[in-house]
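Example record used in the benchmark description.
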Amino acid sequence: MNNPEIRRLPPESPLRIPESLLFPATFTAFDSWSELVRDIYGYDIHRFEAVQDNKVAGILALAHVRHPVFGNYLATSPFGSFGGFAFSSIEVRDSLLNETRKLADDLKVEYAVLRFIEDDNSPPRPWVQNPIYSTYLIDLPKDPEGLMQRFGPQHRKHTRQSLRKGFKVRFGRLDLLDETYEALARSMHELGSPYHSKKYLGRMASLLGDNLEFVVLRDARNDLVGSAVLVYHGVTATNLHANILHAFRTEYAGECLYWNILEHYCQKGIKVCDMGRSLNGSGNESFKFKWRPQKIPLAYWYYLPKGGHIPELNQKSAKFQFAIRIWKRMPAFVVRALGPHLIRGIV
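Model output (structure tokens):
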């Protein structure tokens, strides 16, 4: 077998993702996703292919983030959990790691981070790992009732109770843009987190086409309850965002939204639901465990050209906890104006 050849792709050349690498690459490696990040936030995307024996054996897509608050860095899977980095062998992986280091040195960034699924391998020097996130995968049967039987008795009870409360769910695309954005913007404010603009969601829907669906949940009085953004890649669907407004949590509205999404996936023939990433040990993780997923640790590998500490751009950071408390108290018009400018730096 020949050594892998690394090819840097010009902007006009499509990134070829072999079917065998589609799951680890995820939708964040799609050219349409790269175009979204460029269009909305102006970040350059650097894309590479590893070719071995005339076949694509690895891919790498890095966003170059430049932000006045969160710094100058390279990252795969912008605004996703993982992906944009996939390989068929350790040899290919290490070739792409070396390419990342060269690019990071050339651009003089503060760090580079690769977010991917790795089989318990420690990173080679000088890469360091920050294993604080996991993603959660549900293998989906053809019959949704078979899925329901996997849950614990209490979770089945709460889910079925929620389905009797008169909630109404709708699946769509640009026709649901306004409602999807409103529910997500409000719920993220309640959680103390900035959110993207409506333009971001609209452009996402236009670029991804049939690979994206919006979901909106309303109650029996037609009040907005929550929404979700679903992205399809191969036989996998990712819950990119799925939030419920705080006032409806005691009515198990989250169970209703998630169950309708999972049932929808089963009916579409989707094989795997990726529930998205969560911090290990968080309350969000506890909610996901109710659905009996497989927990998959995520390998977040960092290259720090100047040494120092891994940046703490997550809720475990004391600075982030303080910012969350302040953000929750700010008026909606301020949050919605500032949010996109802040979140663009936390890819």
